[in-house]
Please model this.
Amino acid sequence: MDAKVSSFFDSVGSFFSGGDQIPLSDHDIILGCEKEVAKAAEGDSDELKNESIMRLSWALVHSKRSEDVQRGIAMLEASLANISSPLQQREKIYLLAVGYYRSGEYSRSRQLVEQCLEVAPDWRQALVLKKTIEDRIAKDGVIGIGITATAVGLVAGGIAAALSRKN
Model:
């Protein structure tokens, strides 16, 4: 019985904590990637430049800072037109989905992850991201319903109190 109660409280705690399983990057990782991009731009091959830009994009969209995420989204969107490889396109679309998730644009994120799953239906990362997005949308819906119900209750209570004072 204690295990069931503990399990219940753990699930409630994880629901309200809003945690997800998407990794985060910090400012030091981003700085390291930026240095790598600058070094690659000095004359390395196009392939190394593209790889370093991809790592920087990954770090940016996985950042805790919204301005980094927005920068990563902009970089990825700008680079999508220049892709010939379906694998690279899938990777960039996935990273865009992560960026939009991090920025709170869940419907756009879900659209992009669905694109990834059309190409690779069993891609584990995309499946995890899709579940994370759907869980977040459901959680926000439940919280929104709770806020609305509370507001309606407060208004109804205020009206009832006002009517009882008049009588």
The domain at 23-133 is CATH 1.25.40.10 (Serine Threonine Protein Phosphatase 5, Tetratricopeptide repeat). The CA atoms of residues 61 and 98 lie 6 Å apart. DSSP finds seven helices and no strands in the chain.
